[in-house]
Predict the 3D structure of the following.
Amino acid sequence: MLILAFLLLAFGASFIYVRFCGFVIWKTALLFAGCFLALNLLYLVFAWVTTWFINPGKPITRQNPVCRSGCIYIAYLLTGYGCVKTHVRGMEKLPDPERFLIVCNHRSMFDPIVMTRALSHFNISFVSKPSNMRIPVVGAIGYGAGYLPIDRENDRKALSTILTAADYLKRGICSMAIYPEGTRSRSGELLPFHAGSFKIAQKANVPLVISSVSGTEKIKGNFLRRPTDVYLDILEVIPAEKVKSMSTAELAAYSSRLIGENLNRLPA
């Protein structure tokens, strides 16, 4: 774990300082915090430099391990500083090591961050809106890890993204996640699902994982102030053969109903 390594290195630097210069509480604390911050910044710069060799306009042929670890690292930082406690239920249902497409409702910008940390073992990349992929440094790191932008206003570009995501799954580069609503629900109520999202699983011939998330909409208001409990539920895994036998409209309707029923059972 990079964050733990950075904490240990910062502690080691502070210990050496105290050993040779004596203990002054404010100086030691400042040195520790400065070393930890510097190590974090250096890692982000290193990850960013690796993206110089990645062309965002072309699909990746393999996942960049530095970019992949960078996505997990950023997720751990944000959920850690945000005091996010994620309760995952049903993780044992996830196919491993088989690749899959996971769909989920969308309540907050923190949704993919929470899922990335909670399910880091399963190597999941996201299909996201183009504006997210234009975020400096973060967007470039995402490209290298297999993240893809989808322009729902342009059918041709959207289909190209769907085909690329399916190709990543077929070649085992990573599992993929997509939010069929297409945008965050401000009210918490489920928005209509885009049936085209489910073509990814059909074309890749992989299982479809239906999941729901709640509580992420509270993180922004609680950030650096109080802890936030988030619930990530793995509701059902539909085998690849059954995914193929159903239409995308049927998959969208079934997923929406399952997620809606689960959210209604959760406490407000």
